[in-house]
Design goal:
Number of helices: 18
Structural class: mainly alpha
Largest sheet: none
Strand content: under 5%
Number of domains: 1
Helix content: over 70%
Order of helices and strands: HHHHHHHHHHHHHHHHHH
């Protein structure tokens, strides 16, 4: 848990740097601290970690893997935030600190061993995100996004908390090990309270990951929030939500798969079709990414529906591929919107001539999100489909393939605009920070697509 301690100290240090007007030191210090937390986290790999803090948390390989992708994604997002927050406010340190506090909550979410710690982690993350969504105080859309996120987030937290309360009422414990023991030792005498709590937990967690029919907050919140914050929510936060979802079900609810699997099947199918079909009709690139993030939640639900030894690998690889590609997409969106003032697809017209490097990296990202071979996104979808097929959900895979074909259409719209349409616009300039993030992310996407064995057998 050294990574958690480092991040806690780092967040306070960043606030002090802001207090003493050390603006130029904020980004370097934050990145160095995140790098230190990443290294200390990776050093705990295969350490045989046991539950700590009276059994409240367990920093095992599962937690190390998802902590690492969360920290790495945050570092890439902060690199493209250079000069971004300065345009919003003079108080930049607070934004870095709040992002770090959100990341602290995320680390708690992926390493909880007690339902009370799950709730605490979700709330630390959520409260930070409510503030970040509304950091543009004079922007009506940002204020609207913050209010909608707060109201729906509080509503979903109520479901989550009631679910935890019902599970405690049935098992007299918040500890995951005790809950697991209750399920195993009473296969035919599970309390109705337990089933009620399990259902409420599914609803609460589905809200947090943006799965249909609990997705209605996602498009408006993603569109209204600053693009940097949207990138953070759609990558790091979504990954953490699925990590917590998977951890809870793998440890506690696997023996009750016949009860909750039909519920998640319906949620996954609704999520796929609502996300993909809605994305087809969008004219805004940012709003299209918001709806596509809903559809990707449907794909990641496959690993929980077909719960097994490979589920952790599948979610980690898919979340990694999705996060890296989404960071590229949001980084290019920032550059394009900064010049054109619009996030419509027409804003990308002729981008291949104006900046070939940016156009190439965005093409790689779109191909990966669409699941085209030789990209990380293809490997992620392949593992998800393989996981579902291993449990004989053939018809589910067929529906998913249909949705993947729909996704190819709207992802390639921006590629067509960049390469096959022309417009008289000036060249788009990008800073070295953007170039590094775009180049590194595109390279990682291709490497994982060509050599998936690097991260496909971690657990």
């Amino acid at each position: 848990m050294n990574a958690l301690i480092i991040l806690s100290v780092l967040a306070i240090l960043v606030l002090y740097l802001g207090l003493y007007k050390a603006k130029n030191a904020l980004l370097p210090v934050t990145l160095l601290g995140l790098a230190a937390a990443l290294v200390l986290g990776l050093l705990e790999w295969n350490s045989g970690a046991a539950p700590i803090y009276s059994g409240m948390m367990q920093f095992d390989n599962f937690a190390v893997a998802f902590t690492s992708i969360g920290i790495l994604s945050t570092m890439l997002i902060l690199l493209i935030s250079k000069d971004y927050f300065e345009h919003i406010s003079d108080h930049v340190a607070e934004y870095y600190a709040i992002i770090l506090f959100a990341l602290i909550g995320i680390l708690v979410m992926v390493s909880f061993n007690n339902l009370s710690m799950l709730f605490i982690g979700v709330e630390i993350m959520s409260v930070s995100l409510y503030i970040l969504a509304g950091i543009r105080k004079n922007d009506f859309k940002s204020n609207e996004a913050a209010l909608k996120y707060f109201l729906t987030g509080a509503f979903s937290t109520g479901f989550l908390l009631m679910g935890i309360a019902f599970l405690y009422g049935a098992t007299a414990s918040f500890d995951l090990g005790n809950i697991k023991e209750y399920v195993i030792s009473n296969p035919a005498q599970i309390s109705p309270l337990f089933y009620t709590g399990l259902t409420l937990m599914i609803v609460g967690l589905s809200f947090k990951v943006g799965a249909a029919p609990f997705h209605f907050w996602t498009p408006d919140v993603y569109e209204g929030s600053p693009t940097i914050i949207t990138a953070f929510m759609s990558t790091v936060v979504k990954t953490a939500g699925f990590a917590a979802f998977l951890r809870l079900f793998m440890i506690c609810f696997a023996p009750l798969q016949e009860f909750w699997m039909p519920v998640l099947l319906v949620i996954a199918i609704l999520t796929l079709f609502i996300g993909n079909v809605s994305a087809l009709y969008q004219h805004s690139f940012k709003r299209m990414l918001a709806f596509s993030s809903i559809s990707h939640a449907g794909y990641m639900l496959f690993a929980i529906i077909a719960l097994g030894p490979g589920s952790g690998n599948s979610v980690f690889l898919y979340a990694s591929a999705y996060s890296v590609a989404s960071i590229i997409a949001f980084a290019v969106l920032i550059l394009v919107k900064r010049q054109t003032g619009s996030d419509n697809f027409d804003s990308f017209t002729g981008l291949a001539k104006r900046n070939p490097f940016i156009a190439f990296t965005l093409t790689v990202a779109m191909l990966s999100l669409a699941g085209i071979p030789l990209t990380a996104g293809f490997i992620g979808k392949f593992m998800m489909f393989s996981t579902a097929l291993s449990e004989y959900h053939i018809w589910l895979v067929i529906l998913a393939v249909v949705n993947a074909i729909i996704g190819i259409y709207y992802y390639l719209r921006v590629v067509v605009a960049m390469y096959f349409k022309s417009a008289e616009r000036s060249e788009i300039q990008s800073s070295p920070y953007f170039n590094f993030v775009l180049g590194f992310s595109a390279l990682l996407t291709i490497l994982v697509g060509v050599y998936p064995s690097f991260i496909s057998n971690l657990f």
